[in-house]
């Protein structure tokens, strides 16, 4: 069954319009997971976080689940990070299509917020 699902996903990903939608969905899930991990590490409930960032608990819940209907903006993720006491850092990777889309990390990074760093390491775990 899992092989059938992988095959179907691979087939769908071959179409450019599906590839873009899958990329957006993956990004929404990743950012939602990051928001969840920051909130959990800070010991906040969804309601408490929502109050700190000026939104509703439902918005936080949808964002954390990756089903907010869109990819969260960096400003929204930054407000969540600051409310949880984290600093957001972006890292860029160059994709080399001629080598089968292998990724190579670069030295490009940006700090988006100057919140007090947390005790918890928030390095992406993929």
Could you characterize the architecture of this molecule?
The model is unreliable at 113-126 (pLDDT under 50). A two-stranded antiparallel sheet has the order 1-2. It has helices at residues 2-13, 16-42, 46-53, 57-64, 74-84, and strands spanning 89-96, 102-111. Helix content is 52%, strand content 14%. A hairpin with a 5-residue loop joins strand 1 and strand 2 (102-111). The protein contains 5 helices and 2 strands, in the order αααααββ. It is elongated and about 45 Å long. With 126 residues, it is α+β, with helices and mostly antiparallel strands. The protein has a domain at 2-86: 434 Repressor (Amino-terminal Domain) (Orthogonal Bundle).
Structure in a nutshell:
The protein has 126 residues and is α+β, with helices and mostly antiparallel strands. The chain has helices at 2-13, 16-42, 46-53, 57-64, 74-84; strands spanning 89-96, 102-111. It comes from Sediminicurvatus halobius.
Question: Layout of SSEs?
Answer:
Elements: H1 2-13, H2 16-42, H3 46-53, H4 57-64, H5 74-84, E1 89-96, E2 102-111
Antiparallel strand pairs: 1-2
Helix pairs in contact: 2-5, 3-4
Protein name: HTH cro/C1-type domain-containing protein
Domain HTH cro/C1-type: 37-92
GO molecular function: DNA binding
């Amino acid at each position: 069954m899992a092989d059938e699902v992988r095959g179907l996903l691979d087939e769908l990903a071959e179409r450019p319009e599906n590839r873009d939608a899958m990329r957006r969905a993956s990004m929404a899930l990743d950012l939602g997971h990051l928001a969840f991990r920051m909130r959990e590490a800070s010991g906040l409930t969804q309601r408490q976080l929502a109050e700190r960032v000026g939104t509703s608990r439902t918005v936080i819940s949808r964002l954390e689940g990756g089903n907010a209907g869109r990819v969260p903006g960096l400003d929204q993720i930054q407000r969540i990070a600051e409310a949880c006491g984290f600093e957001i850092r972006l890292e860029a990777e160059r994709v080399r299509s001629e080598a089968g889309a292998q990724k190579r990390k670069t030295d490009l990074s940006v700090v988006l917020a100057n919140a007090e760093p947390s005790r918890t390491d928030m390095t992406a775990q993929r």
